[in-house]
Design brief:
The chain is an alpha+beta fold. It contains 16 helices and 17 strands. Strand 8 and strand 9 form a beta hairpin. Helix 3 packs across helix 5, helix 3 crosses helix 14 and helix 8 runs parallel beside helix 14. The longest helix has 26 residues.
Length: 431
């Protein structure tokens, strides 16, 4: 077992988080050897120790079995079997045209579809029980405070995987899943899993609605919703306007193509250096006028060596804020780039290694990985006040190397660290 993990195991037990999780997940059969919370605890500990595949947890099994705070050495097969028991059935949607587009299908209709049509259909999995557990764990760990306002970020991400029900995704670089994540204040609170051929726009309004209702049911307030261009469709904007929810959303490229070239462009003097000029206008959506901020910028691609780098391009941002100036809106929108960093961290914790063949089982693993990520955020917050080298911007792999991979040994009177002298003086003072 990684030595630095011993401190966190003791601390997590001290704050009683596992008892709260067990209350939420409920009891297994009286004949079951392990409780639900013990299985989840085992995987979270393994994930934070660098095991990003279920089978890798075997290497820590004996250490956990001999650990005085656990005495449980749960095998990868048992973890997998219990995770599967938490799954919920998929729901299905057609990919027809007109009024039949994205129409709901029952399971029998889906199974009777020809193979070529089945490949085009949408498969969606929503695990409400685990999403409830996710947001309650976030609150119980103190990562979000009831009554406070937070920014809600919503985005789809491609998970490249070749499991049996993966599909070619909209980026056309392979096959995989396309889940939609909702982050409140930078902390994940909701996930809807979909197969790869579901694009970013599909059901985005439904996900935003579910995330807003989930947050508000826990007493958390939404400052505004932030999304990329997938959120700029009329049905999503209409929902936000109707429910008086503020938003800052990247405008779809079709809006910029309709630029008539006669807007009063003004020089941009904000902090973002690649923006040259801006212009304000109004866009009519669903009989409502929405502020549309245009800005002329030098394109920066996320792909190294892209031919588009350095080209000038017109971008647009749709917003409900009439009182914010252009610099403030651009700055607030650009902060959503942190979501890409979160996706990278989730991959470090195992999100890209799907352990099962079916979406409904892999949805459980995705949400469990989000729960592991919340424990990682809490660990940084807790240790950051005690250890100078634990920083807010630490990646999981850096955290594991700097803190988790420390040699320890249990003695009759407690935990002893075998490490360099200066590290020993720091670590030995952590309660």
């Amino acid at each position: 077992m990684r030595g630095g993990m011993d401190i966190l195991i003791s601390h997590f037990s001290k704050i009683g988080i596992w008892k709260k999780i067990n209350t939420h997940l409920g009891n297994r059969s009286p004949r079951a050897e392990y409780r639900n919370d013990e299985v989840l605890q085992t995987w979270v500990i393994n994930a934070l120790s660098g095991s990003n595949r279920l089978e890798h947890s075997q290497s820590n099994r004996l250490s956990l079995l001999s650990h005085p705070k656990l005495n449980k050495g749960i095998s990868p097969d048992t973890i997998s079997r219990v995770f599967k028991s938490w799954a919920t059935d998929n729901i299905y949607f057609s990919k027809g045209e007109g009024r039949h587009k994205n129409a709901p299908l029952d399971k029998d209709e889906y199974l009777r579809m020809p193979p070529e049509e089945k490949l085009k259909a949408h498969e969606v999995n929503i695990n409400d029980k685990l999403n409830d557990l996710l947001i309650d764990t976030v609150i119980n760990l103190g990562l979000l405070e009831i009554g406070k306002e937070y920014i809600l970020d919503v985005d789809a991400s491609i998970i490249e995987t070749r499991v049996s029900d993966s599909r070619p995704h909209y980026k056309r670089t392979g096959v995989g899943y396309c889940p939609v994540f909702a982050l409140l204040g930078g902390v994940p609170i909701y996930l809807e899993a979909r197969n790869g051929n579901s694009n970013a726009v599909f059901r985005l309004k439904t996900v935003i609605k579910a995330a807003v209702e989930l947050a508000e049911s826990r007493g958390l307030k939404i400052k505004f919703v932030r999304s990329d261009a997938a959120g700029s469709v009329p049905v999503t904007i209409g929902y936000l306007i109707k429910n008086k929810i503020n938003f800052i959303i990247r405008a779809h490229g079709a809006f910029t193509k309709n630029n008539d070239g006669h807007r009063p462009w003004k020089e941009y003097t904000g902090e973002t250096s690649h923006i040259h000029s801006f212009a304000n206008s109004q866009l009519k959506l669903n009989d409502e006028y929405v502020r549309l901020l245009w800005y002329n910028a030098t394109f920066k691609s996320s792909r190294p060596g892209s031919k588009l780098d350095g080209r000038k391009k017109i971008f647009g941002i749709l917003t409900s804020f009439e009182d914010l100036n252009e610099s403030e809106i651009v700055k607030l929108y650009n902060q959503r780039g942190g979501m890409e960093q979160v996706f990278s961290y989730l991959n470090d914790l195992g999100m890209k290694y799907m352990p099962h063949r079916e979406l409904k089982y892999n949805t459980v693993f995705m949400i469990v990985t989000l729960i592991s990520y919340t424990f990682f955020l809490y660990a940084k917050k807790y240790l950051g006040t005690k250890l100078p080298f634990v920083k807010d911007n630490m990646e999981p792999r850096t955290f594991i190397k700097a803190f988790i991979e420390v040699i320890t040994k249990w003695h009759g009177r407690g935990l002893r660290f075998y490490t360099r002298a200066e590290q020993f003086r720091i670590f030995s003072g952590v309660p």
